[in-house]
């Protein structure tokens, strides 16, 4: 909820879970407008590899924090 972009590695580091896709799916099903940015991230084994970065725009971060009784910090 800090407004940063998150990728799969960040998610694993912060949660210990590999289920980022499921979380993004659930958030979108609940109506949250999670944005996706696809960026090239080639490896020797997979030169066409693309990864996704996910982001919740600031106004929706503030809304989510307000729902939970918290305040967004700039």
Write structural notes for this entry.
The protein is an alpha+beta fold and 74 residues long. It has one domain. Helix content is 38%, strand content 16%. It is built from three helices and two strands; from the N terminus they run ααββα. The protein has a two-stranded antiparallel ribbon with strand order 1-2. The longest helix has 10 residues. The protein is elongated, with a radius of gyration of 14 Å.
Q: Which key phrases capture this entry?
A:
single chain; about 40% helix; about 70 residues; about 15% strand; 2 strands; two-stranded antiparallel sheet
Count helical runs. 3
Question: What strand line-up does the widest sheet have?
Answer: 1-2
Number of strands: 2
What is Rg? Answer: 14 Å
Residue share in β-strands: 15-25%
Q: Give me the secondary-structure category.
A: alpha+beta
Largest sheet: 2 strands, antiparallel
Low-confidence stretches: none
What is the string of SSEs from the N terminus onward? HHEEH
Mean pLDDT across all amino acids: 86
Please give the domain count: 1
- Overall body shape: elongated
Relative helix content: 25-40%
Distance between the termini: 12 Å
Helix and strand topology:
Layout: H1 8-15, H2 20-29, E1 35-40, E2 50-55, H3 58-67
Antiparallel strand pairs: 1-2
């Amino acid at each position: 909820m800090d407004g940063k972009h998150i990728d799969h590695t960040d998610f694993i580091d912060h949660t210990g879970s590999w289920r980022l896709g499921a979380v993004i799916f659930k958030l979108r099903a609940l109506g949250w407008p999670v944005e996706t940015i696809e960026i090239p991230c080639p490896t020797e084994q997979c030169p066409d590899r693309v990864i996704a970065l996910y982001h919740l725009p600031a106004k929706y971060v503030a809304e989510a924090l307000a729902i939970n009784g918290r305040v967004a910090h700039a």
